[in-house]
User: What shape does this take?
Amino acid sequence: MNLAQLTPLELHASLARGDLVLQAGVFSYRLQSPLPLIEQGLRQLYGGYPCLPPDVQADFSLRLDHGRGLHRWWHRQVRFSSDGERPFEPLPQSHAFAQMEWAMNWCVSTRAHQYLMLHAAVLERGGHALLMPAPPGSGKSTLCAALTHSGWRLLSDELCLLSLADGRVHPAVRPVSLKNNSLDVIRRYAPQAEFGAVTRGTSKGDVVHMKVPQDQVQRMAEPAVPRVVVFPRYAVGEPTHLQPLPKAPAMIELGKNSFNYLLLGLQGFEALGAMLEGCDCYELRYADLHDVIPRLAALMDGLPSTETAA
Assistant: This one.
């Protein structure tokens, strides 16, 4: 059953009891919350995602609740906890849905050590995965959102999950997080894109989440073979510049953009090295989505098929 098939009353009751279990990519999340913004955001952005039976063992459990004491009624807050841990300070309740998304990222990045986890957007085209590692403010998520509406399949806009078992990238398909001016950029580029409510005044500025197209949600269990690594940076007014990058500096940068590279030690080093053996690496500067996206498509479409490569 998909979340959209639940009636408003059923969704409300399931969230209140803590038996809503949502499958998103390779992970399942048990969610509990009485907050209307959580319910609203789930219905807007996760309607096409499967709900699992309430008695399954979810990968992660999240509770987003009211603030304590006077904060339940005055300067209302949202408080996140997971298995008794409270890793974040309470936030204004208007930030509830964004807090849920950040909490889901935190659960994965601190616990899913069966993967080498990189802070990178990942998209698939022709069976090949494009990895785009970059720090905040680089234009990574904006480019990722545009690619999602340009014939590419989204695996994640934040978390590259490189399996230690099979060397493939596994999906963590959830809504794409956009900040500040990126919303208007994507609205102009992809008028068909759907968005949740804007969360204003967060530590990251104004934040909005873009819905993943349903045909991509239906393929969210499919991994992809890593083949191209691009380090993007938005550069106002500059022409598109895509330049090959040697693998040694690429590996150093990927290590810096990993959540658990040092924790995994030799295993992480070997996994990253093996991945790069099969990847071409580039530095990218761009300003115009209409120019850069065909360039990236031509790059990926020129690769051998996965069957030929195998």
